Amino acid sequence: MYMLLYAISMLLFGSISPISQDCDNTLSGTVIDLHDSSVLSGALLIVAGTEQAVQTDVDGNYTITGLCDGTYSIQVSHPYCLTQGYTVKVSGNTSKIFRLEHHLEELNEVTIKGETYQREAKTIFKNKISTEKLEDFSNGSLGDALNSLSGVSSLNTGNAVVKPMVHGLHSSRVVIVNNGVRMEDQEWGAEHAPNIDVNSVGNLTLIKGAGALQYGGGAVGGVIVADALKVPVKDSLYGKTLWNLASNGRGSSVTSQLTKSYQNGWYATAQGTVKRYGDFETPDYVLSNTGIFERSASLHFGLNRFKYGLEGYYSFFKNEIGILRASHLGGASDQLAAINSNRPLVIEDFTYDIAEPRQDVTHHLARLKIFSRFEGLGKLSLQYDFQRNNRLEYDIRVGDDADKASIDLELDTHTVLLDLDSDLTEKINLKTGVMARYQTNFADPTTGIRRLIPDYDKYDLGGYAVADYDLNENLLIEIGGRFDYTYMDAFKFYRTSTWESRNYDELYPDIIVEETGNQILTNPQLSFYNASATAAATYAFDDEYKIFFNYSLASRAPNPSELFSEGLHHSASRIEMGDLGFKSEIAHKGAMTFERQNPIFSFSINPFINSINDFIVIEPTSIEQTIRGNFQVWEYRQTDALLLGFDLDASYAFTENLRLDHQFSFVKGYDQSREEPLISMPPVNTKNSVVYQNPKINNLQLALQSEFVFRQNEFPNNNFEVYIPQTETNEIVDVSTSPDAYHVLNFNSSVDFNITQKSQLTVGFKVTNLLDNSYRNYLNRLRYYADELGRNYLLNLKLNY
Amino acid sequence: MKKIKLLTALLVAGTLFVSCSDDDDNTPEIVNEEELITTVTVTLAPEGNGDDITLQLQDLDGDGSDKPVYTVSGSLAANMVYDGSIVLWNETESPAENITEEVEEEGDEHQFFYSVGTGLDLTTEYADLDEDGNPIGIEFTVTTGEASTGTLTFTLRHEPSKPNDGSLADAGGETDVEASFDIEIE
User: Fold this and answer.
1) I need a surface site. Which of A162, A364, A435, A618 has the fewest CB within 10 A?
2) What helix, strand, coil percent values describe chain B, rounded to 5?
3) Interface A-B: count of C-beta contacts within 8 A
């Protein structure tokens, strides 16, 4: 009631007479370097018209008290910066970050304005996950963290393989950028999780569109940017350690990080994580063979000067994941038995052992970047990165081969990027760059199993230009284009029978290298030319309302699995067929976001429409008899797809301490040629939470979250009939019908303790699936075989030092 | 100017780093699947007089597009006992590899099941045992009844629960072989 009266009085008198109000507002915030966001201590802030002058503390924080509602002029100065005047609108307790032009003495005549360090497009509404929120997912995966955002779902294979899905699209359509490096980790498979430790990420940004043209044009679904935290330019040593303990999976994770920085700009951060879980459990049974053992480490170092600098980053990630034993099946009749049983067909006692079927993935990423600013030209940076991804998939095998991997792929990628960021005028910023990439995939023949993905070499060349224009204070326009050339040189063995049945012998007789027994070695050489573009605008009505318009054109070359798949994919117990004749996918996406940022009631609404020509989809086409029984054949095909929907985020503060958060996501996807729904589209879902936060009681935080996922009513009918000899009947294998709607409650709490002046301990307690509900999730590929996880108690301790 | 030199040096180093890609033209090695079962041969030898009956399923391209080929050498005689044995081959290798040996070695992890179609009048019985005393089913006997026709299905399961009641439903596990033959008893 008080708030309402206050709001009304604000409206009535706010602009007329500031004298009638309480003058006990505070203005607080930080003063930071415009270029690298390092904090500026000892900056002097003078409030014009009053006698007030305050200085920022060592962390760059300031607080000015006794202000009335109204507009103030504030002058901010720092010994090494150009003194600047700002006008600030104070309304209640207000926070404001001042960005100063640092190192001005080195600049001579060049003045660079704007947030030149911000790399992503400014005209697209972005969802950010801060370090604090990421720490909540310390024991989970990157996919789990992203799943907390509206518009993001996850495509799961069990609970450990979590793949982010943005506005209904996933895998090679979602580009993941890890510390400035585009992840190249055989992202094509639905059962391949991104190889990033969530603990090595400082900030996670999601761009629901093809916005970040710097990183490539294939982002039909969106771009996920994971960045390390900025290190301040000062002498300092700090770090943190997080320890998690979970009842479900009976496991733990430990992550530790230490940063050393110097006044002269040098810095280094080392970080490491170990995660170990045994079999997870549903309310009723153990999910046998779902353990996980993850180890990762990263080292980040560099020199951060205004005129020049360098940055080095290396990360190592190794993950062993057990795949639900009950999901490993022979043929269609096994699948029928598994689907018809409401419990997994294999349930064993809890164990930490990870047996077959399992995945063992190792990813190395190394990056070296140097940059220098040139007068009249801008900031020029050169980056080289190398990635090595080794993916081993172990199936249940017999005899001498029992311990051998079924899939052993090694993917090496070298990339060189040259970028130039320049200010053409005070209002126009232009970013341009070129990229060259070489990638080679080696499929080890000693597995004794025909290669799922063939050996190939891939060459990419790309160039882009993005310009933004600050038309006035309220309107920003951005326009960009990119062109990519891809050349793929593969060596692929086809079965002679398949080669002929697909008519390849007439279509591609020239690519045959040799014929041996019942296999043909071919050398497909494919070229793709892809154009991408973006046009966008942001308009800020006042301090609170903003509107974003974005159109993006993205084109994606087909990936090796879409082109070359041919044969039995054991983990999916189906035969998969690619097509050598595929063209690039071309997507036109239009999105709009209307946003209000307000301490009491803020919201954003984000409708989108994505029309994709030659969308590559995999779907069942027939049943094939083999000696192992009948298998369903899934073929990739190209169609025209239309995806549309909206995301809604809202937050309402009842009082200063109590808040209600709301999220709603709605996606529909249609195959326009077949006039039927697209497979694996996220069901409508909503998340609502009540959050209580009190900074006075050790920053106590209590949150109760309700997650409701509706049933997916729109799915294509991919059911098939299979003859069961034992009963001499034809039975329908129902692989299409979606599971029922479900509701899950989660509880989260945390409290901070100051141990010494410089170290702080945060104790968190969390319960997921509080009511221990049994449910299945449409987007989990293992939903046919088992329920989702039951109740999980999690304890986490964080020590900042 | 020292910085510019450093920058140039790094630039050159970066370029060198990338240009050293391997340009070997070696074609990849062919993979002939070792565990692939292309052929199932069931031999039914009548106890006493008569010719062996062979039931064969052959699928030389594995999970390729060609359909498996079923052949049955003849019909069974009524009211007769046959000694049965199963041999699994991988004929993509030369010489062809006998996979039955692996199944036998890992007898505790494998079992053949015989499903008799409703019209067919015959019974089956296991004639071999694994190290734990449970049947494997490579060796078995078939006792025929009156003249009839129907399907006889041989299913090899990997990691079934053992012991079991001899039915597929009770055994679980994963199917390695499934071969259904049309049988006639005269």
Assistant:
1) A364
2) 15, 40, 45
3) 176
